[in-house]
Amino acid sequence: MNGFVDGQVDPAFRAVRDVFEASFADGQNAGAAVAVLVDGRPVVDLWGGLADTRSNRPWLPDTPVVTYSCTKALTATAALQVAHRQSLGWDDPVTGWWPEYGVAGKDSTTLADLLTHRAGLPAFDAPVSTAEAADHRATAARLAGQRPVWKPGTEHGYHAMTFGWLLDEFVYRHTGFTVGEYVHRTFGDQLWIGAPPEVAARAARVGAPPAAEQAWTDPAPIAAATVAEMAQAYRDPASLALRASTNPLGSYNNPEVLAGGWPATGLVTTARALARFYADLVAGEFLPADVLAEAVRERVRGRDTVLTLESAFGLGYMLPSENLILPAPARDTAFGHPGAGGAIGLGDNVNRVAIAFTPNLRRDWLSGDRRAYNLVDAVYSAL
Asked: Are the C-beta atoms of residues 357 and 287 closer than 8 Å to each other?
């Protein structure tokens, strides 16, 4: 076992610590943290292992790490808050605030389409460099000029990277702030979508195990044909799945990438801060209860045109599905977003729960894995 596990746990949630410790003992984690709040009260705050296996730098209570697509929930919340405060409708056309967007058959696109992955722009049609991706206005303009892959609103397919710049443009045009600036000012100063040098320097270094160990571990049956189709898609450079998830392409250990504030995948934070974000969200600090209830209402479910397996979304929040497998007690009430390789952030309006798990070892080639599932299962068993 590398490193250690430290922190605090309410006695009622001791099983969460047991699960977390076991994940280091069996080599599933290199370094990680998990935090849980119930009714806004911290009941789990644990960290352990190594932030950097090359230097044996330990994971500390304030070690941040990139959380990949967990970012999308914060970006969506920023857009929802702006829309609510400025009395803008989800179903209003994007061209009302972004006239340049209404070309190539995109004039009927709504804010709800952007939030539910129905915009038809899951991938850039030309390579985008790390430097270009840091220019959010130019990156959004690229998308505004593209022709959609499908008629907006008629299908849903995971906009792995483009989701961020589309909604960043909405936030910027209504507030003058990028999503990263807005999130940091409004939701928490330990939430960085655009990490400054000193934060990037102490962030955990992310990595992946050998290819032979990167196997499917999600704890639910998914048709073998679906898994095979996905595997093939990720081997095909022309597939939507690969194009959507690898352009722009850059190492998330690169300070330039972390500083670029990629608004779909660039959140650098701690488990403690991510769980607090969800605790404040379910407590009504960021959105009124009726607005949040509408935002987590299922809008789309079914075969994802990009991922090929089932996915489901409210207004920006991912809901339990084949792409977000949760234990039975959480499936009817939990919402949030996983990140590539295991990270997860969840909220639950009914049980008043907030959960975050932030590892630096990417285990699966899909969002979510057994580590997060086991932790969530232990939390719900303790409620």
From this structure: no
**Are the C-beta atoms of 43 and 8 separated by less than 8 Å?**
no
Query: Distances from the Cα of 190 to the Cαs of 114, 200, 256, 267, 269, in angstroms?
Result: 26, 12, 19, 10, 6
What range does the domain containing 56 cover? Answer: 5-66+190-291+318-382
Sign of the Cα pseudo-torsion (121, 123, 127, 133, in order): positive
Which of these three, 157, 182, 207, is where a domain ends?
Answer: 182
Q: Residue 247, by phi and psi: left (phi above 0), alpha (psi -120 to 50) or beta?
A: beta
pLDDT the model gives residue 2: 45
| Residue 242, token pair as written in the block | 């690969």
Tracing tokens 């952007």 back to the chain, one arrives at 114
* 192 in Cβ contact with 199 (< 8 Å): yes
DSSP string covering 70-132: THHHHHHHHHHHHHHHTT--TTSBGGGT-GGG--TT-TT-BHHHHHTT-SS--S-SS---HHH
Q: Any idea what the Cα angle at residue 62 is, between residues 37 and 58, rounded to 5°? A: 120
Q: What is the pLDDT of residue 366?
A: 52
Residues 37 and 79 in one domain: no
| β-strand partners of 255 | none
Burial 155-164 (b: 16+ CB within 10 A, else e): bbbbbbbbbb
DSSP at 248: S
Contact between 35 and 45 under an 8 Å Cβ cutoff? The reply is yes
Q: What is the CA radius of gyration of the chain?
A: 19
| SS3 (DSSP) at 164 | helix
Low-confidence ranges of the chain (pLDDT < 70): 1-3, 211-221, 364-368
Please give the Cα distance from 345 to 25 (Å, whole number): 24
Please, what is the angle between helix 162-175 and helix 179-186, to 10°? 70
pLDDT in tens, 45-59: 999 999 999 999 999
Domain boundary among 147, 182, 217: 182
Q: What is the pLDDT of residue 223?
A: 79
Q: Do the domain assignments include residue 43?
A: yes
| Contact assessment for residue 1 and residue 24, using Cβ atoms and an 8 Å cutoff | yes
Residue 330 located in a structural domain:
yes
Residue pLDDT, tens place only, 320-348 = 999 999 999 999 999 999 998 789 999 99
The pLDDT of residue 219: 56
